[in-house]
Specification:
The chain has 93 residues and is mainly beta. It has a single domain (2-92), classed as Jelly Rolls (Sandwich), CATH 2.60.120.380. The chain contains no helices and eight strands. The strands form two sheets. The protein has a four-stranded antiparallel beta sheet with strand order 1-8-3-6, with no helix packed on it. A four-stranded antiparallel beta sheet has the order 2-7-4-5, with no helix packed on it. A hairpin with a 5-residue loop joins strand 4 (33-41) and strand 5 (47-51). The radius of gyration is 13 Å and the shape is elongated. The two termini are 19 Å apart.
Amino acid sequence: MENRLDEYWEDDISCNLRAGTSYGIVGVCDRDCRDLDIALYDSRGNRIASDLQDDDIPAITINPSRSGTYQVKVDMASCDTRNCYYGIGVFGK
């Protein structure tokens, strides 16, 4: 999935995760992006994982205890232009 955000804006992306499956969630950003952050929230709104480091390739790993719909919150923490393009990948094994 590819989107764009203005600096300091956020986006929410829904994803279905299955209990007992290991997942990697990775964000990538274009060359104008300086810092992209991601956080994963469960259906109750609890943050269960995040990568808030000062980098443009955030990554988290999770093995959820419950199947369901989760939210990936994407934060464009730093962008050198009006808006930056980003992509999120959710990989399970």
